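Shall we go through a protein fold together, starting from nothing but its sequence? Please make up or recall a protein chain and show it to me in full. Go ahead whenever you are ready, and we will take it from there.
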Amino acid sequence: MSPRSARLARLSRSVTFSACHRLHSKSLSDEENLKLFGKCNNPNGHGHNYKVVVTVRGEIDPVSGMVMNLTDLKEYMQEAIMEPLDHKNLDKDVPYFSEVVSTTENIAVFIWDNLQELLPQGILYKVEVHETEQNVVVYKGEETIVK
């Protein structure tokens, strides 16, 4: 590759937020919810310290040497993740989750959608949400499956 050829890179940044939720679907009976979600259906909810890793991708700018300024990414993540989710009851404090079950999968979609509104178009590559050290959801904005 010549020095003038574009080089693509991925850049990741992580944040941690604390929130509580209750896994409960309005489409199911109380008995069905308890059977499906078990202890995570506790009426009083339960909490997590979520870790979110956001990855962007793009050309390395030949002048700045960056895919994106990390300070800008930090500010976007503050607005898209920390402000709406940190120290919140997801089901009661975040309007999105009043109609959507607050699973880690849906949290990843929520974060993706929020970031898409802020980031330059086409730069967002991946959102990882670590609910625990063992449970991780990766969302890349894939198209929905038509049924």
Summary: The CA atoms of residues 64 and 122 lie 19 Å apart. The two ends are 44 Å apart (CA to CA).
